[in-house]
Design brief:
The protein is α/β, with parallel strands linked by helices. It contains 24 helices and 15 strands. The strands form 4 sheets. Strands 6-3-2-7-8-9 form a 6-stranded parallel sheet, with helices on both faces.
Length: 542
């Protein structure tokens, strides 16, 4: 059983082993999609294969569409060269359910895979051809929030971006520069309409994509490298739209236990590829069963009927409410809380943390007690039901190989949204008192303790990658576990960090929460075991 077209066409063996093999005519689908593409997706990673590609497959299988999609990779070309094309653009989706059962599906909806490389004339020419097609309705994106960033942490324009601004759309080097160049081709071919849909897990993602694309259009026009009407084209929602969306589906790195399941079935050539850019990619992706995708319904050239397979189309205001519900209260803050304390307490699986009574009490307090009162019901998803599923089904799923170390990545970038927005809601409320918050400050203190890189048992660990890790660790580098710590000395060291609105969303001293964080932190650095003691005493007193 090899993952390629020839093996899948002789699908009896696959079916006997419990794999779902689609019944649609893949050769016909590929021919139609390549000739008249409707949907292009940028970002060939795990979330795409587990979610967007599967949505397309369900559309095909249930007769709602005759076309699949085109996937484009612009960060790590080897993903296409070493994984997609050798497997004929097929992949295996393994859905890990909370009851222990496993669904195995061969994903056949990807008609072609492309490389976003302006130096490769053949690849870039094909993408330009796609973007001039009347049939193209939308381009979706999962390139991470960093993918839309045109500046560094100091606010300086990134060198490849600056060079692209000056040199124009012929051979841009930056990711968004290349996407903007493809849009320029669409503009030149008759100002054809399209929806540019970010489905990345970040707030107001459509605006981030718009701002990035607009920056290129504006600079190219000013520098005489593009028609000045290109800017107006980007700004005209009847031509190019940038809908907001909210996406939610956990797709951890492919796990060895899943590899073993497939290997025991007889699937060959499952070896993962580690690219020269250190991307770890396998022929399969494992994911949870739960999934949500809510998109602002703004598509100037029409769209596939994805509502038939569970996508919710609605207004921008509703997308914002759903996104705030998830990111600010009902899921992401709980994940970050578990990530921070999980790393300190020596856990290597999120699901294992849900057997820890103290941690369960912590996230229940943050979600139900401190977070839920500030949630605005979006109408399309019920907040209480959403958080119930998160706490009782999704996070405890022991078959999901997700780790606190993965979720702890970029925590400094997550705190202002995942906790800062709740604090702001308390501050602006007539009915809520910010001083009643106990567990959010506890998580902040836990993060300070996490920055020390020392587990609760005294063992050293390496904090997860974070663009501000080195900067933030400077505030705690001279603080040691044990001994008599002077509160004023500790406060003098960490208060400047606690006042940083970019990290916490608010000035914690100004809002009266800094002393609470400091007191928790002081308690956590007393000795080995102090984090557990502080956590236990705090949540048991609530």
């Amino acid at each position: 059983m090899k993952l390629n077209s020839a093996s899948i066409k002789n699908g009896n063996t696959w079916k006997e082993k419990g794999y779902v093999i689609p019944s649609f005519d893949r050769d016909k689908m590929i021919k139609e999609t390549v000739a008249e593409p409707e949907w292009v997706h940028f970002g060939a990673g795990n979330i795409f294969r587990a979610f967007q590609a599967n949505l397309s497959q369900r559309m095909l299988e249930e007769g709602f569409s005759t076309k699949g999609l085109t996937v484009v990779e612009g960060f790590d070309y080897e993903i296409i060269e070493k994984m997609y094309r050798p497997h004929d653009n097929l992949s295996i989706l393994v859905t890990l359910k909370a009851d222990g059962s496993v669904d195995k599906t061969v994903i056949e909806s990807i008609a072609e895979s492309c490389i976003l490389d302006s130096e490769n004339e053949k690849e870039f020419a094909r993408l330009k051809e796609i973007f001039t097609k009347d049939s193209l309705k939308m381009a979706t994106f999962t390139i991470t929030e960093k993918g839309y960033c045109l500046t560094n942490a100091g606010g300086e324009t990134l060198p490849p971006v600056a060079a692209d601004f000056e040199e124009g759309p012929v051979k841009p080097k930056s990711y968004i520069g290349k996407v903007a160049a493809l849009l320029y081709e669409r503009f030149l071919s008759g100002k054809k309409p399209i929806a540019m849909v970010s489905t990345d897990n970040c707030s107001h993602n459509g605006d981030k994509l718009y701002d990035a694309i607009h920056a290129f259009a504006d600079n190219w026009a000013k520098n005489g490298k593009a028609d000045k009407d290109f800017v107006a084209y980007i700004e005209d929602e009847s031509k190019v739209s940038f809908p907001w969306s909210m996406i939610d589906k956990i797709t951890p790195r492919p796990d060895d236990s899943v590899n073993d399941i497939l290997k025991n079935d007889g699937v060959e050539e499952l070896e993962a590829v580690v690219t020269s850019k250190n991307t770890w990619v396998a022929p399969f992706v494992n994911a949870e069963e739960s999934e949500y995708l809510v998109i602002e319904d703004k598509f100037p050239n029409g769209r596939p009927a994805l509502e038939k397979v569970g996508v919710i189309f609605t207004t921008k205001e509703t997308v914002d409410k759903v996104e705030r519900m998830k990111v600010c209260t009902c899921l992401n803050p709980l994940h970050t809380s578990l990530a921070v304390f999980g790393c300190i307490l020596g856990y290597d699986k999120i699901s294992e943390e849900m057997k820890d009574e103290d941690l369960v009490k912590l996230i229940e307090q943050i979600g139900y007690v401190e977070g839920l009162p500030v949630v605005t019901d979006p109408g399309v998803i019920k907040p209480q039901e959403f958080i119930d599923t998160v706490v009782n089904v999704r996070i405890p799923n022991k078959f999901m190989p997700d780790t606190p170390q993965r979720i702890a990545c970029d925590t400094s970038q997550k705190l202002p949204i995942r906790f800062g927005e709740t604090i702001k809601a308390y501050i602006g409320s007539d009915n809520l008192d910010v001083q009643n918050l106990k567990c959010i400050p506890l998580v902040f203190a836990g993060w300070l303790r996490y920055l020390m890189g020392v587990e609760d048992n005294g063992l050293i660990f390496e904090p997860s990658p974070d663009p501000l890790l080195t900067k933030c660790q400077e505030y705690v580098k001279d603080i040691k576990l044990g001994g008599e710590a002077d509160k004023e000395e500790i406060k003098a060291k960490i208060l400047p960090l606690l006042k940083d609105e970019k990290i916490f969303g608010v000035d914690l001293e100004k809002e009266g929460l800094a002393d609470k964080v400091i007191n928790y932190y002081m308690s956590m650095i007393q000795d080995k075991g102090a984090v557990r003691k502080t956590l236990h005493e705090t949540v048991c007193a609530l």
